[in-house]
User: Fold these one by one.
Assistant:
Number 1:
Amino acid sequence: MRAAAALRGTIAVPGDKSISHRSLMLSALAVGESRVEGLLEGEDVLATAAAMRAMGADIVRQDDGVWVIHGVGVGGLLQPETALDMGNSGTSTRLLMGLVASHPITATFIGDASLSKRPMGRVIDPLSQMGAQFQDTPGGRLPMMVRGINPAVPIRYTLPVASAQVKSAILLAGLNTPGETTVIEPVATRDHSERMLAGFGADLTVTPSPEGRVITIRGEAELKPQNIVVPGDPSSAAFWLVAASIVPGADVTVTNVGMNPTRTGIIAALKMMGADITELNARIVGGEPVADLRIRHAPLSAIEVPPELTPSMIDEYPVLFVAAAYAKGTTIARGAEELRVKESDRITAMAEALGACGVVCKEFEDGMAVTGTGGESIPGGATIATLLDHRIAMSMTIAALHAREPITLDDAAPVATSYPIFFDTLEKLGALA
Ligand SMILES: O=C(O)C1=C[C@@H](OP(=O)(O)O)[C@@H](O)[C@H](O)C1
Ligand SMILES: C=C(OP(=O)(O)O)C(=O)O
């Protein structure tokens, strides 16, 4: 990837990954026909679709791109005949373990080399308390067999780690569990599960308390089919926010970006750095706030990233580190130790990738310090190990857009997990000319 001469135009990003997974899962549990428009057709979401089909749902993509789902009803999931291949997707794995946990079925979960290293103990613990049984690979890893139980036992569980996946796994298990299942979230994480479960008709309440957000779902629930419009993914838009900020002369508008406040930490952080981001046409689409974002090149300054932003930008740290590499001064991000258990260890991966491109980075156990150029080109000229991690591949592609020497990815294929048209969009903006 070479430096971009200009970066101009109007683009749309694909559907939100978190909302796409949940659209398929909840539609597959509703009785009747649901329709989903704007579904992200990335590998992670397709893994969820295949798993829901393997457990009995009828899921069809129409020629017009609308997905039509006939669900089996809560409690109606069938025993899958073969192992569920989750590919690279942590969200599919952890949320589906929650669904299986309260059904009288057994499912084996497998995944790629990256997913097979990721910790599953965080869902095994609460779901075991609900009565599910697990046969895992040492260290709580995949491959793993999950034996669900019905009726499962409702629990009251305080999340030990800020994770929307763990929260969602418990709430999904609670759907088919008689009584009240409660998750207490000391630190708020993305709330798509709560919004969508309520939208599908589940009896769910969210109450603030001194301990945090108290989320209670009452089972056994009946879900009503829905028509869903999936907003564009802010985590995908983040690449263009940073790209346009660092490439001189850039002027990019990204349309239809999800602006759920539990997801917009990257916009707040970039604005603190001096980014020129304008929100246009704020509106509500499918129950979620959405806006178009116009981003123009601007000089960036280093910040200390407020740790309270962490959950609302957890997937955006790799590209934030790229912004930091072009900012004036040393940006410091702490309180983000979760980055070490994503598709790769994203702290070490980005420290090594940016380091190989001549950027000074200092790793902390829970974050990183990055010293930027003040807007000048970074040296570049390295080949980057993408480590089966889509966000490392895309972040380093953005880093290349204003580098002195080309930056090469050893493997660009991981991009397809969350953003299959990423390189097409880069071409559309004039970066590959
Ligand atoms: O619930 C979700 O859809 C997600 C939650 C986050 O993971 P954690 O729950 O592990 O923080 C995030 O990193 C992931 O991309 C999607
Ligand atoms: C962490 C991510 O996804 P998942 O956990 O679903 O693999 C991500 O998309 O950055």
Number 2:
Amino acid sequence: METLVLKIGGSTLESLPQAFYKHVHELTRTNNVIIVHGGGPAINDALEKNAIEATFHQGLRVTTPEVLQTCEMVLSGQTNKYLVTKLQEQHVAAFGLSGIDGELLQAKLADQTGALGLVGDIAHVNKQMITMLLANNYVPVISPISMTKEKQKLNVNADSAAAAIAKAMQAKLVFVTNIKGVMSKQKEIIPFLSKKAIEVAITDGTISGGMIPKVKAALSCIESGVQESIILDSESLIGLATHTACGTSIRLEEASYV
Ligand SMILES: Nc1ncnc2c1ncn2[C@@H]1O[C@H](COP(=O)(O)OP(=O)(O)O)[C@@H](O)[C@H]1O
Ligand SMILES: CC(=O)N[C@@H](CCC(=O)OP(=O)(O)O)C(=O)O
């Protein structure tokens, strides 16, 4: 059975149609499905309500202890349980957990200079835990909040958590976001992106904001031997079985980039 990591972005999470959840149910018939979710916009709302200011650096949230508390509350509480419920309504055996639970994800500080604050990169994935859930026919639904070896909680970008999990499980990685793919300057979907093209597109500003961690995460997966990494929206995912070209596929080799 093929293993599939579906990363669901906060940008699209609350507007996913019922057909999406039904499609996930279909996918579980022939794949081991692992879901990793974000929740950026919901975190923004909660921070705003509490008058806590937050800034971003290269698509990553600069995280103070106060910001971290809100991120955990939203991601591991509100968003995780929202998704688990939606999936269960469509008969998916969803099992919600965060990177902290069962020491699923071990993180380390992403930026030793302290500029990003309490932001983590995944250092280790507890594969056994994921395998155990999959073997019992559960679909793990994972919030990216994680902990260091020393038990310091860290805010981990959901794209990079999904990539770490896909690498560990050698799974195909699909980013489901609010846009049909990575867009060129001419606002056309770029079907294939290579490492070189990604570097150019970030430098010249074609790729910005939340798309930066996504393409970087996709690339890191491909570089570590993951077969495929693709960025698309929920509609395209549902149509993936019938369409040949869909979204943006991240490749190692050079491909034309406009
Ligand atoms: N070249 C690009 N192509 C597509 N989207 C881009 C590009 N550059 C920046 N973006 C932005 O990235 C967003 C997706 O990132 P983000 O909002 O973090 O999504 P998610 O919550 O799904 O992780 C898009 O909606 C778009 O505004
Ligand atoms: C460090 C960092 O940036 N963490 C992210 C975690 C959530 C996330 O990644 O949500 P999306 O998938 O919706 O972008 C944040 O605080 O927004």
